[in-house]
Structure formats: structure tokens, C-alpha cells
Amino acid sequence: GQQVMQIPQYQHVQEGEDFTTYCNSSTTLSNIQWYKQRPGGHPVFLIQLVKSGEVKKQKRLTFQFGEAKKNSSLHITATQTTDVGTYFCAVHLRAGNNRKLIWGLGTSLAVNP
Amino acid sequence: NAGVTQTPKFQVLKTGQSMTLQCAQDMNHEYMSWYRQDPGMGLRLIHYSVGAGITDQGEVPNGYNVSRSTTEDFPLRLLSAAPSQTSVYFCASRRVPGTDYNEKLFFGSGTQLSVL
Lengths: 113, 116
Known about the structure:
Chain A is mainly beta. Chain A has strands at residues 4-7, 10-14, 19-25, 32-37, 44-49, 55-58, 61-65, 71-76, 85-95, 98-103, 107-112.
């Protein structure tokens, strides 16, 4: 079953509004990554969070890693049409002797100009 | 650096045909992988490799073969295409992380495959 829940599945905002997507896991995570995929494009790495409670900013994007390292969020302030796309979280989970990269199903963001 | 290069960008096959999707990277990455992306299913790992001569199965390996004879190349073979293999395929690579835990994945631009 899905080990990483990402919500919401879709979000439609007016340009200038804020946007947040959440990624939740039932297990403690070693790290979490966020990617952006533009329509018709390929996923592009945005950031990796490693430390409990970590907060990182990239211009209008703010990434947080929960204190318990079980959840994360990506917040966009004052969305622009260039923010349109699908945002994925990806986490490494241990499976036996291996580590597997598990992907959330993504949040698709649409921005009305 | 070109990064991760995938060919072809588009392909239409008939059921039962075989083909190879090519992937090459020029970043000297040890780790390479193939994903398929279907609506509502997210990214699913098909096969991966942690170095030349080493490959392993991912989440959805059936119907696909891979080999890794060089660090640069990681082709994906469809032995007998089926309509269920209609999808967008992405190749991705990264270096094996050191103490910085940097596991950033670099993706190719994708191959849109239709099997009729």
C-alpha cells in the first residue's frame, strides 16, 4: 500500500494566493526530497531535508521537515503562473537490507492568472 | 555536461514488438534507474543499477530487461510490448551519496511510449 501520503491531490489557486502541499509517513524518515514536474516535463529536484525540524527557503518556496521526521510540507507564497506543475515528495524507506525511494503521488497545482 | 539523455522521445509499437529505450549520463553517476509514470500512479521504479555489471529489480520489473555494461549507459528493453506498457518512461541517475547524504536524482526528459 501507499507508504507516503501526499495531500492534497489537486489545488487550484488564483495567482498571488499561497499554496501548501503536505507529505506524511507512518514511519520515521531518514530524509525527504521534493521535486517539481512541469506539464509535459520531467521531475526536477528542488531540495532534500535531513534534520528534524529543518526549515529551508528558496525564494518564495519554504520547505519544512517535522520534528518527528514523519512529515514535511512545501509552502509557496504568492503563487505565480510559473509555479504550475506537480510537486512530489520522495522518501527513503528501509526494505530488508536495502533502502528504497518511495514517491508520493504528487500534488498538481493550477494557477489562474 | 548534457546530464541524462534519453532516446527516443516518442515511440509507437504494436503488441508483441520489442524495442530498447536508451539512457546515457555524463556525470559519472554510479546509480541509474528507470521509472514509469502513469496517471494517478505516480512514479514507479522498474529496474535500477548501482554500478556497471550490477542491476536489480524495482517495483514493476515484469516485461522489462536491463543491463549495465558501462557506467554511462543503462538501456531498458521491452521484450514483447503489451498495451499495459503504454506509459511515460524516465531514466534517472545520481551519485552514491557520501557523508553529505546528497541523493539528488537527475532525470532525463522522458520517452512517451504507446503500445497498440
